[in-house]
Design brief:
The chain is an alpha/beta fold. Helices cover 40% and strands 20% of the residues. Among the domains are: 194 residues, Rossmann fold, CATH 3.40.50; 84 residues, no CATH class; 121 residues, Double Stranded RNA Binding Domain. Helix 6 links the parallel strand 7 and strand 8. Helix 8 crosses helix 10 and helix 21 runs parallel beside helix 22.
Length: 616
Amino acid sequence: MQSRQSDNNHYSLRCLQCGAEHDERETCTFCTKCSGQLEVAFNYEGLTQKLNFHLLKSSPISAIKYLPFFPIGDYSKIVTLSEGNTGMFRAAKLGKMLGIRNLYIKNEAVNPTGCFKDRGSMVELTKALELGAKAVCVASTGNMAASVSAYSARAGLPCYVFVPDGTPTAKLSQSLAYGSRVIMVRGSYGDTSRLAAQVSREKGFYLAGDYAFRFEGQKSIAFEAAEQLGWHAPDKVFYPLGCGTNAAAGIKGFSEFFELGLIEGLPQLIGVQPEKADTMVSAFNAGEKTYRYVENPASVASAVSIDRPLDWFRAFRAMGQSRGRGMLLDDASSLEAVKTLAKAESVFVEPSSAMVLGALSKSLGEGSTDADETVLLVLTGSGLKDTKGILTVLPSPPSVNPEASAVMRFLDYAYYDIHAEPAVSAAAFTALPSKSELGVFLRKSFGLELDKDDLEKVGAMIDQFLAKGKTVTGSDMKYILSTIMREGGKSTKTLEVIDFTVSTGKNVQPEARVIVRYSDKKHEAGAIGVGPVDAVLRAIREAIPADAFKCSLDDYRVNIDTGGSNAAVQVSMEMRTQKNTVTAEAASPDIIVASIRAFEDGFNRLYELENRKKSE
């Protein structure tokens, strides 16, 4: 069969499954014979003829500098936002922490839309113009949507974006700002991808996504990395795995430089997935021939929580070709890696990027990575893309009265140092300690020396935890200490919930009754809610006199640091009046009690703020 190559005669499109070759004007996504994916097959003799090796080695780094390596025929149609040339630096501080000498980070979050996808979008949207597209259609978990939207806007093409319902707002806001028509699909990424492909066929839109042309654009990460390492490949390169495109493209990029004699070999590819979205890692490591479908994957690493990885075949091939492997990481380790990267190297990335650091740490602990190896971590997206997960493990800033003594309290008690420690599930107390025992524990565990009043308050909260049948853990003590610190220096409570009761059943709406003290007077009321917490909070509002101070509850979040049905919960509420907003927190083994305390805290702080302003 004669090869159907482009006009510039250095590549063709070939099916990954059956090997059939295709004209890109007929299809550039799926094979028309077997529905397999297509890939670009380069004629390296033709490619070499197009290359000026002197210019390649001497010109400044940028993605567009590698144009001969991309399947582009008409350079006048190039759509670029100056993507690429992302910084790569030796992570000396992080390397010292981990015990590895040559650790490098390539931060793709500094691309124009904040993620690695821009490299592929440059090639895809250029091809869309070359092929005469009238509109673009794409399915995404967020990052690709933002990138394709930006490049479509630059190309002057309408863009239709399909995302799974629940995609992070930060990513959707980018797509909307670029003028894309965003449609949220009540289904998985697989459902979203199939829908986008169907719409593109029926409407004649260019289908963007993890297909042949995007794959080629993503190679430039490897090109730049090799050049930034002095025309050498690292020993190992860690990539996040979602659909598998970026990691597989990286190995192809290193392979092409190796084929042309620009580097001496290939790095081992370590592909990293969340435990909750293990579509490829376990299957590849077990020698299986295809991926494993994961129904409704739900990880904090939302960008790579894919149920059906489109590029699994090329990801498997890349790991095999490079003698690499896959690794899994739990959500807690991914979030901890976000914090570590930010604190050690001042790089803030989303959990799906930080996974690679967690995997490296795990690999060093297992002995599968040597301290003398040169290791590259590819960080794919900005932390501003997805803040929901990391906010659950970061301390909320304390709120203080405008007095130096209030600030000194937080400084003296090392509020942030306490929260810097990771979650600890080991038991701290199974029985109420004496004051001296508690003092010794706090000095040893947290380096704290509390005054008499605060020590008594900590003991009282421990007693409340124990009264609920809860063993107090190290993480519980963090919650308790945080609560005591936040309560310090406050005036008398305007609102206090004295007691409550809740009755509910499987098919019955919860009903709550509360007794509150408001401005030194007791009030009682009841209410029905959609859940026990809702019922109690409604009852509290009912109990407060009609002419009393009012505020609204705008947001409600629950965090659980450790597992188990008896785990303590931390409740965070955003409450506001027309003029002021506060974030209130509280912890308890009982979610209702934690919610009541948080509501009390927010209400009383807002009351104090409003009345202080009236008196000024």
